[in-house]
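Sanity check

After download, print the first record. It should look like this:
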Amino acid sequence: MKRSSFAAPYGLWMLVFTVVPVFIIVFYAFSVSGGVTLDNFRLFLEPEFVGILTFSLWLAFLCTLLCLLFGYPCALFLASRDMKRATMLVVLFVIPMWMNFLLRTYAWMTLLEDTGLINRFLEWIGIGRQRLMYTENAVLFGLVYNFLPFMIFPIYSVLVRSDRNLEEAAQDLGANSWLVFLRVTLPLSLPGVVSGVSMVFMPAVTTFVIPRLLGGGSFMMFGDLIENQFLTTGDWNFGSALSLIMMALIFISLGILHRFNPDAESNGAVW
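Expected structure tokens:
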């Protein structure tokens, strides 16, 4: 038996659940009443829909930036040779990911609501209640919380496998800690950074659960728009066109990231 035959179940799975659905989306996106048309894509050019996409990209960019600012120092700390219990801390980061994505978001609704623990603490220290739920900041906070591990682990995976002799060699040549970081550690970690950016930015653009729960439906992102077309308005043609636009943006993002670091996919693997 050829080794390639062992891949047959995977090939069948990809055909049924990936290739066929994509062809169905393409069919609906370019058809209206049985005819071929581009009207579904022209409809997207209306300011309302372009504004939703722009808002989604902006919020995803902020989420990715914050995840990088918080995640990189955390990964650097975990990968430090002086960190004796790094494995335990990594497990603590992984444990919340074992919970359902929806449950984690509901938990933050309990914390951020008007009578939640955070507002009770603010009242206790004399600041008073703040409007935390159903705001743009609440949506951004939910995005950062849910996607932060996807930034930490790729960077940590690269840093922990990097050759520490290079840092020691730089120190022997007279480089201080900042120079070692800028000239050695940071360049070595770029594959993990690129991988983490791609794993955070793309899901953040397409998410729809977080803005619905933490934003109260006041902030529609591109994922919400696509879901509404399929489940609420029943316009599968326009929804399929939006899905293709989103797929095109994802491929463009992957191309840009791959251009910055061609080895990001292989070197920045998490699992």
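If your output differs, re-run the checksum step. Summary of this record's structure: Strands lie at 31-32, 35-36.
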